[in-house]
Design brief:
Blueprint (H helix, E strand, L loop, with lengths): L3 E10 L11 E9 L9 E10 L5 E11 L5 E6 L3 E4 L12 E8 L7 E8 L17 E3 L4 E16 L1 H4 L4 E6 L2 H4 L2 E4 L10 E9 L7 E7 L5 E3 L3 E2 L4 E2 L5
Antiparallel strand pairs: 1-2, 1-9, 2-5, 3-4, 3-7, 4-6, 7-8, 8-10, 10-11, 10-13, 11-12, 13-14, 14-15, 16-17
C-alpha cells in the first residue's frame, strides 16, 4: 500500500479558533493514489499534532486516529477526541501565539508515519478570551487556510539546464512520483542533492519587511534540510508557483 497518499485537504468543519475551544475540530481528508484515483473503503492511521510557534514549533498536543475511508475516499476525524492523547486539547489558548496542524499518515499499522501537511490554524479576535461559542455552520475551505508545507511525492531524478544550453539561469528540473500532479518541478540550482526515494515537500515562507506588506518565497525540500528555491514560473506546466498551493 506504499502507493497511497493523501492529496487533498477538503475542509475544517468547526468554529473559528478563539480563546479556548470547548468542542473538537472536525477535519475531513480525501485519500487518493498516485494516479489521483480515490481510495475507497481503506483503513488508514493518522497522527495529528498541534504545534505552537514556528520553525518548527513546539508540540502542545497530539493524538492518533484509525479511520476507514468511505465510498468517496473521505475520512472525517474529530481533533480532540483521538487515542493516545498527549497534552490537553481543551486547555490550548489559541490567542497567545500562532498554531499549526501537522498531519501524518500511516497506511499499515506499525509503519513509519509520513508527514503530509503542516498548515496554520487561523484565529479570530474574541470578545471573551476564556470561552468560545461554536458556530455549527462555520466552514473554512482549503483556500482560506495558510498551507505552508505540501507533500510533493518521492524524488526520482533531475536534469539541469543553464546558460550554456538555454541561455537562461541555472535550473534543476525535479521529477517526483507525483509528476502527474505537479509536472517536473523547476528550482534554481546547478546540481541536486536529493537522493532517490527522499520524501519531498513544497514549502513557502511569508516575508514582511517593514511589517506593511509581504511576499512569499517558495522552496522544495526533503527531511534532511536540503532545499532549493522554486522558480516563479513553473516551466514544465507553465503556471505560476503559487498555484501549486
Amino acid at each position: 500500500m506504499k502507493n497511497l497518499f493523501v492529496i487533498l485537504i477538503l475542509s475544517f468543519l468547526s468554529s473559528a479558533l478563539e480563546g479556548q475551544l470547548k468542542e473538537p475540530l472536525s477535519y475531513q481528508v480525501t485519500v487518493r493514489n498516485t494516479a489521483g484515483e480515490i481510495m475507497a473503503s481503506k483503513i488508514v492511521y493518522f497522527r495529528l499534532s498541534i504545534l505552537m510557534g514556528e520553525d518548527p514549533g513546539v508540540t502542545v498536543y497530539s493524538e492518533l486516529h484509525t479511520a476507514e475511508t468511505d465510498s468517496m475516499g473521505t475520512a472525517t476525524l474529530l481533533i480532540g477526541e483521538g487515542n493516545d492523547r498527549k497534552g490537553d486539547f481543551n486547555a490550548i489558548k489559541w490567542d497567545i501565539d500562532k498554531f499549526f496542524l501537522k498531519v501524518e499518515i500511516d497506511f499499515g499499522r506499525g509503519s513509519p508515519f509520513l508527514e503530509i501537511l503542516n498548515t496554520q490554524l487561523l484565529t479570530v479576535p474574541s470578545s471573551s478570551p476564556s470561552e468560545v461559542t461554536p458556530r455549527k455552520d462555520f466552514i473554512i475551505e482549503e483556500d482560506e487556510l495558510t498551507i505552508v508545507r505540501k507533500y510533493a511525492g518521492t524524488f526520482l531524478e533531475y536534469r539541469h539546464t543553464g546558460p550554456s544550453t538555454h541561455g537562461g539561469p541555472n535550473i534543476i528540473w525535479i521529477k517526483t512520483s507525483m509528476e502527474n500532479v505537479f509536472g517536473k518541478i523547476s528550482a534554481l540550482g546547478r546540481t541536486c542533492d536529493f537522493i532517490p526515494g527522499d520524501n519531498l515537500y513544497l514549502t513557502r515562507t511569508l516575508f514582511s519587511p517593514g511589517g506593511v506588506s509581504g511576499y512569499w518565497e517558495y522552496y522544495i525540500e526533503n527531511n534532511s534540510s536540503v532545499s532549493y528555491r522554486l522558480t516563479e514560473l513553473q516551466h514544465d506546466r507553465k503556471v505560476l508557483v503559487e498555484t501549486l498551493f
